[in-house]
Amino acid sequence: MPQARTFYMDRASQIRMPSWSRGRIGLIGDAAACPSLLAGQGAALAMVEAYVLAVELRRAGLHASPGERGDAFAAMQASLAGLVRKKQDAALGLGAAFAPRNRMQLYTRNTVLGLMGIPFVADLVMGRSLRDPIELPVAPL
After folding, report:
1. Residue 21 CB neighbour total at 10 angstroms
2. CA-CA 20 to 30 A from 121: which of 18, 92, 131, 138?
3. Predicted TM-score (pTM) above 0.85
4. How far is CA 120 from each of CA 60, 103, 124, rounded to the nearest angstrom?
5. Backbone angles phi, psi at 82, to 5 degrees
6. For residue 64, what are the CA distances in angstroms to 35, 53, 69, 73, 79?
7. 76 near 49, Cβ under 8 Å?
8. Are 26 and 73 in contact (CB under 8 A)?
9. CB of 66 within 8 A of CB of 54?
């Protein structure tokens, strides 16, 4: 770095919201559950959260009171909190893959990436993180 003419530094952050709603306002996607750019799950989580919230709001009904809408927000968070927490926890462990702290981490990361073309290695390394056992609720008619 002493020879570098420019320098750029950024931070990969994660904020864990204790509640994804207040009153009539609800958060979905990165605003509610962003695991961080390291996890790469923001868009997928946003779609799942939006769908589950829509189902819960539909269950509350078109003429739901503000309290009933708040219950729908809480139900959405309750049903997805475990999945989101798992994604957030996994993202914390991915920092070394994106920014190795030493030569050994760099060597390990590069070796694993080089072996990812072998199907069983890719499945071993990434398999569980790409498949989530989630059952989406059925929307009431």
Report:
1. 19
2. 92
3. no
4. 45, 26, 6
5. -65, -45
6. 31, 14, 6, 12, 20
7. yes
8. yes
9. no
pLDDT for residue 50: 94
Structure tokens at 33: 């559950």
Closest CA to 44 of 110, 132, 108: 132
Amino acid at 79: S
Nearest 10 degrees: Cα torsion 33, 35, 40, 41: -40
CA distance 19 to 7: 37
Closest CA to 95 of 84, 85, 105: 105
Element (H, E) at 22: strand 21-22
End-to-end CA distance of the chain: 62
Give the integer Cα–Cα distance in Å for 20 and 48.
Answer: 14
pLDDT tens over the chain, length 141 residues: 788 888 877 777 788 889 999 888 888 888 888 777 777 778 888 999 999 999 999 998 878 888 888 899 999 999 999 988 888 888 887 777 778 888 998 998 899 888 888 888 877 777 666 667 788 898 887
Contact indicator for 76, 53 with CB cutoff of 8 Å: yes
